[in-house]
Amino acid sequence: MALFDLDTLQKKAIEDCLKFAQEHMNGDFVAEPIPVPDDAALTWDPIELRYVADRSMVLWRRYGQFEVVLDADDRVVGYVDHDKWEKCRWEPLTDAEALAIARTSGLLRPGLTLVESRQGEKGSLELRFEGKEPSDGLRVCINPARRAVISILPVEEGAR
Fold first, then answer.
1. Could you write out the three-class secondary structure of 40-101?
2. 3-class secondary structure, 154
3. Which residues contact 105 (CB under 8 A, 6 or more apart)?
4. Would you state the CATH architecture of domain 66-154?
5. d(C-alpha 110, C-alpha 57), whole Å
6. What does the pLDDT look like over 62-118, one tens digit per residue?
7. What residue segments make up the domains of the chain, in order of their start?
8. Helix-then-strand count for the chain, H and E
9. What 3-state DSSP class applies to 120?
């Protein structure tokens, strides 16, 4: 059994991370190790009786056109990911499936209620959420074939 130095292990970890990303996702990726103190880079595993090199990575992927929507206080309230229109086609989704996909955005606030679910443009699924205040409404557009959020936008006043 060969022992590797930490630099060799880190290079192998980056290669393995990029290989995994290419096998499971589309796009060009860059893996960047998250810095850790030297003494935390290698730990002894008393069960497996060996040293374990544990590296956390940040995986970056270049996006095409991506718009972020801010409110008057410069808080993120929505976005449009134009790349998610790729291969968009209609597939029926249950409300539970659509809600799970919409929640991946991190922008669905507690207290929002799904009030409308319908087929949208180019085969997308459009969801409309309402909250306690009229300004709380959100419109979510999902690519059902990719099960990905295309956009989340605030509902404009009078657009209900």
1. HCEEEECCCCEEEECCCEEEEECCCCEEEEECCCCCEEEEEEHHHHCCCCCCCCCHHHHHHH
2. strand
3. 79, 140, 149, 152
4. Roll (3.10)
5. 31
6. 767 788 999 888 988 899 999 899 999 999 999 999 999 999 888 888 889 999 999
7. 6-61, 66-154
8. 2, 10
9. coil
